[in-house]
Amino acid sequence: MSAVSYDSRALKLDGRRVLVLSGAIHYPRSTPDMWPSLMRASREAGLNAIETYVFWNLHERERKVYDFSHRLDLPRFLGLAAEHGLNVILRIGPYVCAETSYGGFPLWLRDIPGVEMRTYNRPFMEEVERWVGFLCGLLKPFFAPFGGPVILVQAENEYANVAAAYGEDGQRYLQWCGRMMQEATFGVPVIMCMGATQGTLETINGFYAHPKIEEYRRRHPDKPVLWTEFYSGWYDTWGYPHHIRGAEDMAYALARFVAAGGAGANYYMWHGGTNFGREGMYLQTASYDFDAPLDEYGKPTAKYYHLLKLHRILNESAHIFLNVDVPEIRQSDDEVVEFEWSHNSQSLVFICNDSAADEAVVRRGCSSLRLPPHSVVILRDGELLMNTAHLSAARRVSRAMRPLNRTLTGLGGWVEPMPDLWPPALRKPTIVTEPVEQLLLTRDMTDYAWYCADLHVESRRAGVGMLRFEAAADVLYVYIDGKLVGFTLPPLHENRKLDGSDRENENNAPDFHQEFNIKLAAGAHKLQILCASAGLIKGDWMLGGANMARERKGIWGRVFWRDIPLQGPWRLSVGLLGERLGIFGAAGELVQWRADLARRPSMPLRWWRIFFKKPYTCEPLALDMSTMGRGLLWLNGRLLCRYWLAQAIGKGGTAPGDPVVSQRSSEPTQRYYHLPAGWLEELNLLVVFEEFGGNPAGIRLCVWEETPR
After folding, report:
1. pLDDT tens-digit readout, 128-158
2. How far apart, in whole angstroms, are the C-alpha atoms of residue 116 and residue 551?
């Protein structure tokens, strides 16, 4: 049994102040066979805790049907953390953000009558209370009062981002959520980041935390300063650049925070991992690498080794600065500040250069210390321990994907038919007078829905014209008489706004408006639109502040040809025939895979089947998908991930001044796709569904390995 408490200086375990050094590892974004090595590497790096969100959206895809198997085996994950001597910060939410589908909410919540998420709404709160009660009952042995590793629990997440939209009802909900979590978690302290309520411990998020300490102490003089999201980089979205953050800047940020009195930090992410299946949010890449110290494949980076050195210094010196409430502060100029912590005749000094552009020189006795921009020099009892700006050349790590000389064999293709050519037993479309959004039909069990209608073009309206969709999402493929004539091009906007002046009129939302210039001859035509979801939103702001219950996919507004609205009826069909037949698994043996289709590979709506033997290597494996377009990947019958070879040409992602570099490129945002070792067999089956064209013969099996310096 462990008693968890805190005072104004630090978190306390069994009455002893501790420095919390934690790293975020999300259990669904890695595989169970990876968990022990991730825990071991975390411990060896000097961490004493790991953090994870709890993914309600994955555990309860159907209401009251719970799944804690395989990657979702949270009890096993928590048990492994304890075995490796790691405490756990468990962020239950229920809203978690996390770049996961629907921000961690199960989609079925949206369809409960009268529901609104993240505000004082009884239908929503009743489901939250039921879920949290079930979860905490299941995890009871893992809470610290019962001898388990869970020392902190988080309620909600970054509520300040949406507080203005919900006003008093939002604050009532937040207070209810805090009380509910306190009652459910057996006395473990409850934290809330960026907005907290009475009885909970507020924490800080951001790239840097030290500028927020003074204001935090004014508001919470009796609480320690904890930093629960210390961003190691940033996430990537398809069509936009990859984001990186330097190891030196990370070390500066942590050292500067501790110097000013910070008592605990959690890297977000420490290991980002992979968005398997269809689990990422709207536009989120399959990779969730986040430029984390442990990369997507679990391998240590230069950032890992640089921070390891800093962690050792902080752990070895924690008794000096944690046993003192405030340091002696000396300000030599506007940008250079010195913090000295002294205890029992020992001292720990942090000399900090806060300038982002200018080097500083500081005299110490007879010598001078050079401090590059954004750097901290650490001395213990006068001995120089570290300059955060100096990254050891011996610890620089360079890795690259190397294609293996392995033949992907047995390439065969199968054509996905138009829905009016499906077998009669499956050809049962939903008939509506006007389009209805696809989640009402798909329940997010597939990315795909077909919208079909008859289109008659008068002679005077023939020729080139505009086919306009008043409200549609996300990627549309427009077919006329079975021929692809247009499709949505990336990059798409991550934040798509409804009309803020009239939230009830969703059809006026400009960012849900799509249009295509096409040519139509006079006469009767079949209009067939395949709508493909790129993932569900993660938060209200992605809809311009409208409640998350307003999430939509497919087509839900009027459709115009040359500004004349099309008349129904519309025939709506859910999913793909190949999905329904399960041809990505054992049922694939029942269809005829044609080798001759590979001679015309760049055609839309193609399924491809490929075999490969398991390579005997200890290094991580990935697929180079650079010759493909967009679609889904299955490995040995499991849905591996979405893929999209969208060029990284979009602008945006992080705010000006953030310490993240955006690597714009004509290369795809993501080219390589993780093949987890735990999913491999001696002979492996890869099935690809390609939406608009690609050459499967160009897919390559690659190994992620260190390259010579």
Report:
1. 999 999 999 999 999 999 999 999 999 999 9
2. 11
Active site residue 158: yes
Is residue 645 a contact partner of residue 626, using CB atoms and an 8 Å limit? yes
| Bond into 94 cis (ω within 30) | yes
The amino acid sitting at 57 is: N
CB-CB contact of 245 with 232 (8 Å): yes
Structure tokens at 285: 């890449």
* Cα–Cα nearest to 660, from 244, 241, 238, 239: 244
Residue 222 makes CB contacts below 8 A (sequence gap 6+) with 7, 8
CB contact at 8 A, 53 and 26: yes
Q: What is the pLDDT of residues 229-252, one digit of tens each?
A: 999 999 999 999 999 999 999 999
pTM score, two decimals? Answer: 0.96
Q: Is the pLDDT of residue 67 over 90?
A: yes
Each residue of 16-28: pLDDT tens digit?
999 999 999 999 9
Give percent of the chain with pLDDT exceeding 90.
Answer: 90
CA nearest neighbour of 645 among 537, 490, 501, 528: 490
The neighbour count for residue 407, using CB atoms within 10 Å, is: 11
The side-by-side arrangement of strands in the sheet containing 463-469 is 514-520, 463-469, 559-561, 564-565
Average pLDDT over residues 574-598: 96
Q: How confident is the model at residue 709 (pLDDT cuts 50, 70, 90)?
A: low
- d(C-alpha 105, C-alpha 539), whole Å: 10
DSSP annotation of 183: H
Nearest CA to 664 out of 239, 219, 350, 333 is that of 239
C-alpha to C-alpha distance for 109 and 113, rounded to whole angstroms:
9
Which residue among 99, 229, 506, 691 is the active-site one? 229
Do 78 and 508 form a contact (C-beta atoms < 8 A)?
Answer: no
Two tokens, residue 390 = 């100096």
Q: How far apart are CA 193 and CA 205, in angstroms?
A: 7
Closest CA to 58 of 112, 103, 117: 103
- The torsion region of residue 562 among left (phi > 0), alpha (psi -120 to 50) and beta comes to left
Confidence at residue 364, expressed as pLDDT on a 0 to 100 scale: 79
CA angle 692, 696, 700 (to 5 degrees): 130
Q: Which of 4, 14, 11 is nearest to 223 (CA)?
A: 11
Of 158, 416, 470, 506, the active-site residue reads: 158
Task: List, in order of start, the domains of the chain with CATH numbers.
Answer: 4-321 (3.20.20.80), 328-395 (no CATH), 399-414+579-706 (2.60.120), 417-575 (2.60.120.260)
HSE-CB for 186 with a 13 A CA cutoff: 20
- Would the pLDDT of 387 be above 70? yes
Rounded Cα distance, 580 and 574, in Å: 9
How does strand 475-480 pair with strand 523-532? antiparallel
State the first-to-last Cα distance of the chain, in angstroms, to the nearest integer.
49
At 509 the pLDDT is 44
Q: If residue 413 lies in a helix (H) or strand (E), which one and from where to where?
A: strand 409-415
Closest of 431, 424, 477 to residue 572, by C-alpha: 431
